[in-house]
Every structure is written in C-alpha cells, then in structure tokens.
Amino acid sequence: MRVPFHEVARRRERLRGLIRADGFLPVGEICRRLDISPATARRDLAAVAADGRITRTHGGALADYNAAFASVGERAGRARTAKGRVAAGAARQVPRQGVLFLDAGTTVQALARVLARRGGASRLVVVTNSLPVANVLGGVPGLELHVLGGTYLHRQAVLFGPEAIAALGKWRFAAAFLGGEGMDGSGVSNSHPEIAAFQRAVLQRTRAAWFLLDHTKLGTRTPHAVADWSRIGLVTDATVARLAAAGIHLPAQRLILV
Amino acid sequence: MRVPFHEVARRRERLRGLIRADGFLPVGEICRRLDISPATARRDLAAVAADGRITRTHGGALADYNAAFASVGERAGRARTAKGRVAAGAARQVPRQGVLFLDAGTTVQALARVLARRGGASRLVVVTNSLPVANVLGGVPGLELHVLGGTYLHRQAVLFGPEAIAALGKWRFAAAFLGGEGMDGSGVSNSHPEIAAFQRAVLQRTRAAWFLLDHTKLGTRTPHAVADWSRIGLVTDATVARLAAAGIHLPAQRLILV
DNA sequence: CCCGATATGATTGACATCGCTCATATAAAT
DNA sequence: ATTTATATGAGCGATGTCAATCATATCGGG
User: Fold this and answer.
1) How far apart (Å, rounded) are the C-alpha atoms in residues B106 and B181?
2) What's the pLDDT score for residue B67?
3) Number of other CB atoms surrounding residue A24 within 10 Å
4) Rounded distance between C-alpha atoms, residue A226 and residue A176, angstroms
5) Is the pLDDT of residue A105 over 90?
6) Taking CB atoms and an 8 Å cutoff, what residues of chain A touch B164?
7) Which of A53, A64, A153, A205 has its CA 20 to 30 A from that of A106?
8) Across the interface, do A152 and B145 touch by the CB < 8 Å criterion?
9) Which of A225, A242, A206 is nearest to A93 (CA)?
10) Contact A111, A165 (CB under 8 A)
11) Residue of A nearest to B69 (CA)
12) Cα–Cα separations (whole angstroms), residue B232 to B33, B78, B255
C-alpha cells in the first residue's frame, strides 16, 4: 500500500493541473480521476493547498487564479484585515468618474473587489493588465473595462511586455493604483524588470498614482526600481514612525494610513 | 415574514454581486452579510444559480466567470459529452508546436482544458482574446500565453474592439480554433458585429482555421456573417446527413465528426 | 536482507449541509 | 376588506464531508 516518492509527487502535480484546468474539483471527482480513496484525495489536497496556488473549500478545491478568490484565502490568513483596510483606504481616492488604471497584486485585487461591491452609481472606465482584476470587475454595471494585451506571466497573473506598454499608448489616467514588492527610502521596487518598466510607463501617463503596499513590504528592496517618492502616493497600514525609520517621508496629501 | 418583490429581487441582485466580487461564498457567510436565515440563503442561491452566471457547490456558491468552471457546469447539463467530444476532436488537430489562436466560447474553453491537461511535451504559443481560456492556460508548462487587449464584453468574457484587432497585427497563426453562434449553408455567423469583424481578422492571419460548433448551432443563423465554407474547417458532433440537410458540404479533410 | 519509515485505505464519530415540510406573517390581488 | 399568494424561518431526517485513528503493505536505507 505504499507508493514511491516520485509517484506521489507526480500525482500531486497532476492534481494541481486538474484543478487548474477545471477551476473547481469536488473530492469525489478527484477520487475517480486519480483512482484514489477519499482519504488520500484529502491528504493530497491538503498538501497541494499548503504550498499555495490552490484553495481548499468545503466540497473540494478551487484553483486560485493567483488569489482571485481572496475571500477564501483571506479568511484563512491574517492578512485579511490589513489588505482589506488598505484597499478600503485606496477606494476613497477613487473618483466617481474618469479613467482609472488598476495594476496587478493581491492588494489591488482587494481594491477591485471593493469597487465591484460599490457597483453602479458611478461612470468609471477601468484599464487593467491583471487577469484577476478583470475577472472581478467584468460585468459590473456602470463600469467600462479595458484589458491591455501582452504576454502572460503566471506568477502574478499579469500581462506584460512590449505589447502591454504599446497598448498603453492611447490612454491617460486620472488615477492609477499599483502594487509593488518592496519599499524603502529610495522608493518602490519590483523584482521583475519588465513589470517595473511597465509600471514606469503607467506612471508617465497618470495624474495621481497610488501605491498600495502593506507593512510587510516595508524596508525590503528588490532589484528593479519603479519610482522614487517625489511624485507618487502611498496607501499603507504601516505607521508614520516605521515609515520614517525606513527613510520614507511623504506629505500628508500623498500618504494614506489605514 | 413576507417581503416585497422588489426587495427580494434587489437582495438577489446583491447576492450575485457579492459572489462575483468574492469568487466563492459559503452559505454561512451569505447569511451574515445579507442577514437572512440559511434557508433563505439556499433559496436565493438556487434562484440565482438557475439563471446562470453562478454555480452552486456544496458549501456555497461559485462565481462562473462566464463558465470558466465548465467542469461544474458541464456536469450538470447534457452538453458535457458533446462539447467534450468536439474539443477532443479538435485537440487532435493541434500541432505539437507553433502559434495557435484560441477564440472565446465554451467549446473552445473545453479545448483549452484538454490542452492544459495534455500539458508539457509541447512547445506551443497560444494567443487568445478570451479571459476564461487565459485562466485555464496560464501557467501550463511548455506553453507560452499571449492575451490580446481590448474592451471587455461580459456576456462572452471576451476582449474585442479595434484594440483587439490592432493587437492581431503582428501575429500569424498556424491554426486557429473559433466558436460561433450559428451555422447554415451560407457559413458561420455571430450575433455581435464587432466579434464577427474580429473573427474575420483572425481568419485572414490563419493557415488552418477550425470552427468548433456543436449540433445545436446547426441551421440557426445570426445577423453577422463570419465566413463561408470555402476555406474553413468544422469540428462538430452533428452527422453528415444533417449537415447536408442544412446545405453544408465540406471535403473530408476540412470536416471532423466526433 | 532486514527494519524502520511512510503512504494508503477502511472505519468511526462529529459535524455541516441539503432538501423537505410546515406554520406564519405579510404583500399583492380582487 | 377579504382573499389569495408567497416569502420566511424553524424543525426534521438523510446525506456528505471532515479529521483522526489504525492495520497493512511497500519503499528507502542500513
């Protein structure tokens, strides 16, 4: 009744693929397709869910689409309040009408969910390069959605590359909400060079740019600089003291603490 | 204990929005947010699921993202076998390498799932304008994914418009797999003018174009013509006799019956 | 070649969910 | 105003899901 390591690993990899391909898979279906008992299915599910990308639900498992389903993920983790509060703080900066850019990143996705809930009562045009954001915002009444084209980067579920930058050409944004991987005294940084280049291109076309960064990003610095603090705003759950300690000083009108 | 019609309708509309925004919602959560009993929550869920867009699961409900989760939806309906078989038939026409275009539509999504399962062992470049297809194919090893930009059309979860057509410019496809809404003796047709225009633009850039159309589309004709039968292939679960009866005659190498 | 480690599947009990019926209160119709 | 229709919540049994335990068979290492 025992099976080689590689066999287990291969089966779990396959399970991951199945869930990704189907979006949602009940336990019973998993048993049938992988020809294993419910007990093993659950164990595999737990293992696969443990290292991310898949979310466990009651009757089965859900593909994450990179955390598109944050309500599930957030409920499990502690980040819920932090991300949610940052998103709520940012949402107050979203005008009732105009052209908006929404970047990738889980916090920005949370903002998208807030906007989706807010729903009608507005005349927004939203442009995004994030697939999860598009999924959340697609079909919201009173909201026109445009998606930039590009190459798909799985790790962040984002479209990037020269096509994406070219697609920016015709747009000008009243406001943009972006994510990042690090912030310190020198500014905001990202780990992927082409993503950083893309974000810089967005900034050039934006009147009011806000970065949504929770406190875990504070003090970390990743290879590719996106912007210094001279012209961007910050929405964060960190404190003024800790920001100052990291060398970040921003005027009140460009800093939102939640 | 009774509540006005509009109240119920409004609450269900709100529920729809909540599920869309969160992706997945357990029954308990719905009770809390809408302040209703589990019984009413289930009833509302059933009502909302009945007219589509949302899929019921064991512990709650799932946003469809326009049938991205076909395994759930298909299991419920009868179309499963038909769509799945058409998709499997089309999959045999997919080369091991080269540049592919995948259109929107549930049958094409089924094809995408087949390709996702097939996984590695190939060197494919896939271009699509369908968000569900992108979701399914994103992150599949050995597969490079590009998404065309454009305006988001909720009803079909597709990106279209002049931006999408412009984004086609640089591409040439070895094969393309498209959906449609109707087929008769005159060819394939679609109900949305801009979608039809987009599909025609795809055809101009494609060596081998296949339309994936199940038998329910046979004989119906929608306002906007996409292509006649002179240069396109058809994958369908209809029979030769019924195709002939509808005035469709295709050489064997451009017709796949499943 | 032997022994410990571990993956598996069956079983069990606790719990949640589901679909149902039913009494009730209130909106809608006449 | 009376009657009908229907939305609601509670109670109920059936079913499904989950986590834990345990015997067993096989892999991995010595």
Assistant:
1) 11
2) 45
3) 23
4) 14
5) no
6) 149
7) A205
8) yes
9) A206
10) no
11) A23
12) 51, 28, 9
